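Reopening this ticket.

The earlier resolution said the output was attached, but the attachment link was broken on my side. Pasting everything inline this time so it's all in one place.
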Amino acid sequence: MPKFSRAPVLRRWRWAALLPLLAALWLLQAGSPLLAASIPTEVEKWVGKQVAELLKAEMGFTSDHNLTRRVQRIGDEVAAASPRQDVRYEFSILDLPDENAFALPGGYIFVSLGLLTKATSDEEVATVLAHEVAHVSENHFTKYLAASLMAALGLQYVDQHTKATWSALTQAGAYLSLLRFSRLNEAQADRRGVQFAYQAGYDPEGLVEFFYAIGGDGRGSYLSRLLSTHPATYDRIMAVRSNPLLSNDNYDALLQRARDRRHHFSLLKAAGLYQKASHLRPDELAPRLELASLSAHRGLLLEAAAAYEDLGQSYPQGKEEAALLRSQAARPAPIPPSEEQLSPVQSKVQALAEALSAAQQESSPLLRKNSDALKAAAANFQLNDLMDQVLLLEPNFWDEKRLVLLAQAKMIVQSAQSASVRIAHANRDAGRTEEEWSAFSNELQAALKTPHSPEALQLLLDKVGDMCADGALAARISKNAAENCSAAVRRLDSCLGTLTPLLLALVDAGMQKHAMSVAAAASLEALALKAGAAASQADRLGARASQDCSSAILRLRQWELEVKYAQACPRARQTLVEMLAYHLGVKPEEVSERVSDGLGYGQAALVLAIANARSAQQEGGCAFTLGANVSAEEVVRAGDGVSPVDVAVKWGMRLDALLIPLDMLHKDAEAITP
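Inline output:
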């Protein structure tokens, strides 16, 4: 919870109370060349810097170096495609659970940790960042700033009666004007962002994929689309899909997008795009050759050999490639495990399945109850809109005590709303933890009865005990997370219940238009403090549940990646090594070294992710430490006898941030076949 400071809050809310008047002046002055004039770039940078520093101080930002470096790298690439280069684009990750991204004047661009958690590829991240870069590139902010500065100057020369008249006469029209202006800006930013992402080497369809990832396939009612400050997501999807760069008839774009996807290891997407390009121009060599190569790197050796042979005279080397692939495919025949090998491990796997089933039976009703309670609490957040309306409808009524309390109440509601998002995510992840571990348990049972290569079989037999131990721990963790979510929901209800009488009293004081007494203000401030404490407790409990769920999923990712690597052929293993190196920003040689040291592929992924996340970053010649410098060797030594996940917990690391690149790696590794 932020600390409340009366004077700054009062100034902030006096400005907010003038918003209808600023909008009115904008409406009245529409078309004036003065409004189109840009504020000097240095002023724009200064304004953006002040707001950026305030946001970082009040909201906090992630200390995961791997994520920070990745977002800055992708952001730099898309920003380089922007025609506007008189600002330095700076990308930061705010520690917020909801999916959000926005830009400030001067090139300061923010993305939330929640958004990165939701994104499933670099294409999605790149297109979101490109959209925000487009806002800066198109000077959307300087136009707003010009209007606001002009309005602020004009208001100094009119009397109170004129202010009230303007507010009453132009409020509806001004809001509709601003809505339209905002929606046009968003549509323009989508169009320009698609172009920037494509020029930077990212498939612009990532923006559509992200819309679907955040549940944007619903059309919504006509009224909700009309009143939205952004275009309805379905409408935005249709607009983006209509871009020529995403046309299935654009051969050059299909080929470029496929190559971009392959470069970022979205191999299944790349294969689909190559197939579309090949069907569009069957006689072209490039997409067919790329498909053959891609199949080989995915471990589909016989399929790749056939594809090379089909190239015929158009690719003379195809026969040699095909012969080499067929020889590599002739691996030792898979062997089934013997009864003697199975008996020591089957009981462990069965015990794991029973533990996970019992945990699901206990947790599921609690998770559903939590979800229902969070939906009910969401209705209370409409109070946030009510406070805005009260402030905007009464720009002439200045009662300092009331305004300070109203600002505090609004900040508490916003904090409670953020806490509710965190709790909802943790509640969802608790169910996800149980479901994914149960699926892995079923796969283990099936795998133990299936023939495998000697190496893959030996891994299963050697590691199944550790896998089952982590699974049993995950069952306990998910149950604890569900209980913490339930406790968090109770604290959230307490917060909102305390806020209701506070808000009603503040609204009533505004309706009566009389100054609040000192005694009444003190009584209401006590309610605000109580509500604020409850919101903080709810947020902490939600964060604890989220950390627990991430711990369980990280352990699962280790074993899933371990099994995937063991079952892959040598060529596909090299692809997995390169894939891991890409997602963690390290050299493939370093990954190979860790795997050959005996860590195993999954454990190497965790160790390198932890070491990367704890690095120090050098930015703009000014070093600021995001964590102590830690090498992979130190992580291994610290984890002697325990999981790398336990090391990360001991060091106080954010596991949800650590999980993001490993989730992407796990998703991309699905393209690799045994």
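Reporter confirms the inline version is readable. The chain has 28 helices and five strands. Confidence is low (pLDDT under 50) at residues 1-37, 147-181, 217-229, 616-628.
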